[in-house]
C-alpha cells in the first residue's frame, strides 16, 4: 500500500486539488484546496490513532481525508462521488480491493447532503468529523471586508479564530471546540449554516461509540 506522502506527490491529485481551489474560489466558496486537504488528512489520522485504530487504518483515513474533495472542480452537486471515482481511476493498481473500497466509501460518504448514507466503516465516520470540524478564518478566500460581511459562510468562518477537536477516550467523547469573535457575528449564525453538519458529526461520533460535544467560547452547547 502506498502512503499519504506518495498521494501528496501525485501530479494528477495535485492538479485536481489545485483546480478545485481555483474553481470554488471563483464560485466564492471557502477554501477547498491544499490547506483544507492537508488539515483534514492530518485530523483524520489523529482521530483514528486516538480512538485506537492501527497505523494502517489511520493512514487510510488520512489518504481519504486528503482526497475527499478533489473532484469538486467537476461539479459540487456530486463532488463526493466524483472524488471517489477519480481516486479509483488514479490508484486502482496501488491498493488491495478492501483498501480501495474503504477509501472510496469514506470519500463518498463525507457529504452531509447524501441522505441515503449509512456508516459502515470507522474511517468514513472519521473523515466526516475531520472535514466538518474545519471552520476557521483561514478558509475565507475573499479579502474585501464588505464582501466577507455580505456572505454568512464567510462571516462565520472569518469570525472563527480557533477550531480544534478534542478526543477523550476515557469518557468516550469527541468535542469540537471553537473560539468565535462575537463582535463580528452572533453565535446563532453558526447554527444557521452548520446545524446539519453538527448533526452529521453527532451521527459519526455515535457510530464510533462516542458522544459528540460542541463548546463555543468556553460554553458547552452539546
Largest sheet descriptor: 4 strands, mixed
User: How many helical stretches?
Assistant: 10
Oligomer designation: single chain
Shape: globular
Derived from helix and strand composition plus strand pairing, the structural class reads alpha+beta
Percentage of residues in DSSP E strands: 5-15%
Estimated helix fraction: 55-70%
Rg over alpha carbons: 17 Å
Task: Could you tell me the CATH topology label.
Answer: Hypothetical protein af1432
State the low-pLDDT regions, or none.
none
What pattern of helices and strands is seen along the backbone? HHHHHHHHHEEHEE
- Give me the CATH superfamily: Hypothetical protein af1432
* CATH architectural type: Orthogonal Bundle
How far apart the termini lie comes to 39 Å
How confident is the prediction overall: mean pLDDT?
A: 94
The structural domain count equals 1
CATH class value: Mainly Alpha
- Give the strand order of the largest sheet, numbering strands 1, 2, ... along the chain: 1-2-3-4
The overall strand count is 4
List keywords for this structure.
4-stranded mixed β-sheet; Hypothetical protein af1432; 10 helices; 222 residues; alpha+beta
Amino acid at each position: 500500500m502506498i502512503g499519504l506522502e506518495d498521494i501528496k506527490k501525485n501530479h494528477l491529485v495535485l492538479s485536481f486539488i489545485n483546480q478545485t481551489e481555483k474553481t470554488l474560489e471563483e464560485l466564492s466558496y471557502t477554501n477547498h484546496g491544499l490547506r483544507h486537504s492537508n488539515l483534514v488528512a492530518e485530523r483524520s489520522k489523529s482521530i483514528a490513532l486516538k480512538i485506537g485504530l492501527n497505523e494502517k487504518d489511520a493512514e487510510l483515513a488520512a489518504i481519504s481525508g486528503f482526497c475527499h474533495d478533489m473532484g469538486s472542480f467537476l461539479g459540487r452537486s456530486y463532488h463526493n462521488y466524483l472524488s471517489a471515482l477519480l481516486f479509483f481511476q488514479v490508484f486502482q493498481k496501488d491498493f488491495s480491493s478492501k483498501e480501495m473500497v474503504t477509501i472510496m466509501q469514506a470519500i463518498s460518504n463525507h457529504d452531509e447532503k447524501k441522505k441515503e448514507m449509512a456508516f459502515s466503516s470507522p474511517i468514513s465516520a472519521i473523515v466526516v468529523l475531520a472535514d466538518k470540524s474545519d471552520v476557521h478564518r483561514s478558509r475565507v478566500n475573499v479579502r474585501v471586508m464588505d464582501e466577507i460581511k455580505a456572505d454568512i459562510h464567510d462571516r462565520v468562518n472569518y469570525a472563527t479564530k480557533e477550531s480544534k477537536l478534542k478526543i477523550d477516550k476515557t469518557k468516550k467523547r469527541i468535542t469540537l471546540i471553537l473560539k468565535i469573535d462575537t463582535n463580528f457575528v452572533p453565535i446563532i449564525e453558526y447554527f444557521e449554516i452548520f446545524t446539519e453538519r453538527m448533526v452529521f458529526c453527532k451521527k459519526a461520533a455515535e457510530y464510533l461509540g462516542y458522544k459528540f460535544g460542541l463548546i463555543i467560547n468556553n460554553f458547552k452547547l452539546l
